[in-house]
Amino acid sequence: MKKLSAFMLSGTLIACTTQADTTLSFSADFKIALPPQVFAGATVFAADELSVKTASGQLFSGKVLSAESEQLPADFDMQLYPQYVLKIKTVSGLSAQNAQLFSNTADEINYSFDLSDVSTEQLQGATLYSLCKAQRCLAYVVKHHTTEYILTVYANGMSKAEFIGLVKAGLQ
Asked: For the chain, what is the radius of gyration of the CA atoms?
């Protein structure tokens, strides 16, 4: 019996010392949990976005986008936003003003991140659009159950594999 108790106690201590991920909550619908090593010596701050700057200088940040924040009509389906700004879907059929807005945004994204690198991945309950250029990455997370909001996530100083790994593993 003493051996069993000692074994159970050691298992409990191991479980108690395991560090949990820390969750960045961008909104009620969009959260990303990041592993403890990201936060070791990191600075968390909010300006226009909620951001984490790691001790090694990597930056991970994100914010929720809405039709209002992007100066689009109130009834705009935000699930379509990444498709327009990443040139997956053509802007024909949109008003001239909205078409110009999406074209300008796509040009900026192409300059910074390279639209030829766009990846689309279906996740549990969401679609992930991502692209990277050098050590800068951008992603859009579109949850299937909401048309009003999407999450945009940005990283600087990370490889595409590291960035996508953090987003996919931490998405809640």
From this structure: 20
- Domain extent at residue 92: 19-170
Mean residue pLDDT of the chain comes to 89
- Count how many domains the chain has: 1
d(CA 144, CA 127): 7
Q: Residue 164: give its domain's CATH number.
A: 3.40.1000
Which tokens in the block code for residue 48?
A: 């226009």
Are β-strands 149-156 and 59-66 bridged in parallel, bridged antiparallel, or unpaired?
Answer: antiparallel
**CA 111 – CA 109 distance, rounded (Å):** 5
In a domain, 108, yes or no: yes
What whole-number distance in Å separates Cα of residue 110 and Cα of residue 107? 5
Give the number of other Cβ atoms within 10 Å of residue 131's Cβ. 21
Closest CA to 64 of 103, 98, 25: 25
**In contact, 55 and 40? CB cutoff 8 Å:** yes
Residue 171 DSSP class: B
Strand, helix or coil for residue 169: helix
**To the nearest whole percent, how much of the chain has pLDDT over 90?**
83
